[in-house]
């Protein structure tokens, strides 16, 4: 390798201007992502607003149905990963490696760990909507199709996929939404003390 061949370095060994610009841009982007982490409701409202704007744009332009279909399939895959446990119980039936989901009432509480965490689900969904919105500005992505067939195919795929996911949840007895460990109430304290 000669001088200046490594990524982001100029001939003199310093990072190039372009490399520094994109590094700084990535740092700013990550900073905004980190600041948005605790605001779950706001993040999802913004994403729903973007999807609403996308739907209005597609409706008004009367096109880009393939892009919309691809976005729908992508969001469905993200949603299934969001509902799935990180460790698939069907693969863990025979082996005792790693944590598994509790299947009996008296087993120790183990929180549901998702294959795709909520933040990554939101981030990927938002990026997908923005990419789809960008595609609507290019005529090359406006492939003429008979859109009712795509809608029916998507609905059929959604129903089959969700049915399979719900059967999996019933078979392995897990609910993808936990709100912490169940709290049991003890006997009520009546406030009487024993005097000796």
Automatic annotation (TrEMBL):
Statement: the UniProt record of this protein carries the keyword Membrane: yes
Sequence intervals crossing the membrane: 41-60, 66-83, 145-162
Compartments reported by the entry: Membrane
Alphabetized UniProt keyword annotations: Membrane, Transmembrane, Transmembrane helix
Topology within the bilayer: Multi-pass membrane protein
A Pfam family assignment: Rer1
The UniProt record lists the keyword Lyase: no
Predominant location category: membrane
Cellular component terms (Gene Ontology): endoplasmic reticulum; Golgi membrane
GO process terms (BP): protein retention in ER lumen; retrograde vesicle-mediated transport, Golgi to endoplasmic reticulum
Family annotation (InterPro entries): Rer1
Family membership: Belongs to the RER1 family.
Role played: Involved in the retrieval of endoplasmic reticulum membrane proteins from the early Golgi compartment.
Protein name: Protein RER1
